[in-house]
Amino acid sequence: DGGITQSPKYLFRKEGQNVTLSCEQNLNHDAMYWYRQDPGQGLRLIYYSQIVNDFQKGDIAEGYSVSREKKESFPLTVTSAQKNPTAFYLCASSGATSGYTFGSGTRLTVV
Amino acid sequence: QKEVEQDPGPLSVPEGAIVSLNCTYSNSAFQYFMWYRQYSRKGPELLMYTYSSGNKEDGRFTAQVDKSSKYISLFIRDSQPSDSATYLCAMRAYNFNKFYFGSGTKLNVKP
Predict the structure, then answer these.
(1) Cross-chain CB nearest to A42 (options B46, B98, B104)
(2) For A87, B28, B47, B84, which has the most beta carbons within 10 A of its beta carbon?
(3) A43–B42 CB contact, under 8 Å
(4) Chain B CB contacts of A29 below 8 Å
(5) Per-residue pLDDT averaged across A30-45, rounded?
(6) B95: alpha, beta or left, given left = phi > 0 and alpha = psi -120 to 50?
(7) Residue A3 distance to chain B (closest CA, Å)
């Protein structure tokens, strides 16, 4: 079955650490996205990529970094510069005429 | 002004009621409109996907788009407790992959 796989489901980060969230899709979608969702709030766009080796900042890119070396993969690194990283992170992909397909999310907690 | 406005609710209805969820938007270039359902601690799942104006029906769900008023709706007939979730609207312009989301409406269907 085609879909998006996010891992891990739960992640704990110590102060000052960088952590990387994985996102893999087998839908042959060109575009991929990372969103952050805080309790009771909507989705906020962190980064998106419309093609391999190219990506753009979203609305809240500070403290995050991404890479897009393969069409299937779009990992997100939460750096120590992100002062409030505790949130639910969602990866998504889309085709030319399709809606978003979301992954099941990664819940990141600072300990 | 936000690109997409959505009443956050919560909206509480008895089982069997007809539910109406709505979003307004400001960008007349939006042509693709979607509704997502998100259960707590899960990724959003696509419910309805429509192009341009008109109605689309799928089982108990009907999506309506009125581009002249920049207004979209999702109707849920014979609502069930399992429909209790947060509903997100999303939209994008033609030939541009970035989606714009509403903040979500939390729905509670009481048995």
Answers:
(1) B104
(2) A87
(3) no
(4) none
(5) 89
(6) left
(7) 12
Q: What confidence tens digit (pLDDT) does each residue in A41-100 have?
A: 789 999 999 999 999 999 999 999 999 999 999 999 999 888 899 999 999 998 877 778
Neighbours of A15 (CB within 10 A): 7
- pLDDT score of A1: 62
The answer to whether A85 faces chain B, any CB pair under 8 Å, is no
- Given a cut of 80, whether residue B1 has pLDDT beyond it is no
A94: nearest CA partner in chain B? B97
Neighbour tally for B22: CB within 10 Å: 16
Q: Tell me whether strands B11-14 and B4-6 are parallel, antiparallel or unpaired.
A: unpaired
Contacts of B54 (CB under 8 A, 6+ apart): B64, B65
Backbone angles phi, psi at A81, to 5 degrees: -75, -15
Q: Considering only the C-alpha atoms of chain A, give the largest distance between any 2 of them, rounded to a whole number of Å.
A: 41
